[in-house]
């Protein structure tokens, strides 16, 4: 059964910002790309590395360890060495608050 998890107020996650949240022992990256909010698994699928420490480039996140990159909208791998996509999460913005469905 899914539930909504409060992330933060919209004003706390400006375009170009990213943060990690950990509901129910999951590590989730939440990022603002030009006003659009995305949520994906925060751990690289290649080797353990927290993507929140990586680099936002357009609508992609690049792993800080081996530079794998993933499309934030779909979790799709855009650059090796990773070969498995990231899990994506539904984001809901309501009354200037950001929520992630987990």
Question: Could you describe the 3D structure shown?
Answer:
The protein has a single domain, classed as 3-layer Sandwich (Rieske Iron-sulfur Protein). The chain is 0% helix and 45% strand. The protein has no helices and 10 strands. The strands form 2 sheets. It has a 6-stranded antiparallel sheet with strand order 1-10-9-4-3-2, with no helix packed on it. A 4-stranded antiparallel sheet has the order 5-6-7-8, with no helix packed on it. Strand 9 and strand 10 form a beta hairpin. The chain is globular and about 40 Å long. The model has no long low-confidence stretch (mean pLDDT 97).
Task: Write the topology of this structure.
Layout: E1 4-9, E2 18-21, E3 28-33, E4 36-41, E5 55-57, E6 60-62, E7 69-71, E8 77-79, E9 88-94, E10 97-101
Distance between the termini: 8 Å
**CATH fold naming:** Rieske Iron-sulfur Protein
Describe the strand arrangement of the main beta sheet, using strand numbers. 1-10-9-4-3-2
Level-2 CATH architecture: 3-layer Sandwich
Uncertain segments: none
Based on helices, strands and strand pairing, what is the structural class?
A: mainly beta
Strand % is over 45%
- Molecular shape: globular
Helix residue percentage? under 10%
List the total number of helices.
0
Q: What is the average of the pLDDT values?
A: 97
Number of domains: 1
């Amino acid at each position: 059964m899914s539930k909504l998890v409060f992330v933060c107020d919209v004003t706390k996650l400006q375009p170009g910002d990213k943060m990690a949240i950990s509901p129910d022992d999951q590590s989730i990256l939440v990022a603002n790309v030009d006003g659009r909010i995305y949520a994906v698994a925060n751990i690289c699928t290649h080797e353990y590395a927290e993507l929140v420490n990586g680099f936002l480039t357009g609508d992609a996140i690049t792993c800080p360890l081996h530079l794998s990159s993933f499309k934030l909208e779909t979790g799709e791998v855009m650059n090796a060495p990773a070969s498995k996509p990231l899990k994506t999460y539904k984001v809901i913005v309501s009354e200037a608050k950001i929520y992630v469905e987990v």
